[in-house]
Amino acid sequence: MATKGMDRLYGERFRIWKQLVNYRDIMRGSIVTLKRPCTYKGCRKCRDGTRHPTLYYSISRKNKTELVYIPKDMEHAIREQIGNYRKVIEAIDQMSEIGIKILRLRIQERRMKR
């Protein structure tokens, strides 16, 4: 027999689960800025050693880091997808915490039935 507290926890977990559907586009990783030389021979910045800031998407898989160039017009979308990934991870963590509370309540109920 579920208690009111357990019903509330199930409801909260379901509410979080429903929010996960809103995060369609997700990407794990981060955006890094690298200073790279350009392809123009007479570039003043490159000649001075300043170089050009360039955005890259960085992800580590199997202990290897992969970098993918991000065009300026795609920066916002990629940042949003990375933010969505972090929100999904946070929601999963919240659901896990609720799962632990439900488990403790189930164990407590079992002990009370004995």
Question: Mind sketching the topology for me?
Answer:
Elements: H1 4-20, E1 30-36, H2 44-48, E2 52-61, E3 64-69, H3 75-113
Antiparallel strand pairs: 1-2, 2-3
Helix pairs in contact: 1-3
Explain what you see.
It is built from three helices and three strands. By secondary structure, the protein is α+β, with helices and mostly antiparallel strands. It has one domain. The longest helix has 39 residues, at 75-113. The protein is rod-shaped and about 85 Å long. The model has no long low-confidence stretch (mean pLDDT 88).
Mean pLDDT: 88
Number of domains: 1
Structural category is alpha+beta
> What spatial form do the alpha-carbon principal axes imply?
rod-shaped
Distance between the termini: 14 Å
In the predicted model, the low-confidence regions spanning at least 5 consecutive residues are none
| Number of contiguous helices | 3
SSE order, one letter for each helix or strand? HEHEEH
Major sheet strand order: 1-2-3
Approximate helicity band = 40-55%
Q: How many strands in all?
A: 3
Give the C-alpha Rg. Answer: 24 Å
What share of the residues does DSSP label as strand, in percent? Answer: 15-25%
For the biggest sheet, the summary is: 3 strands, antiparallel
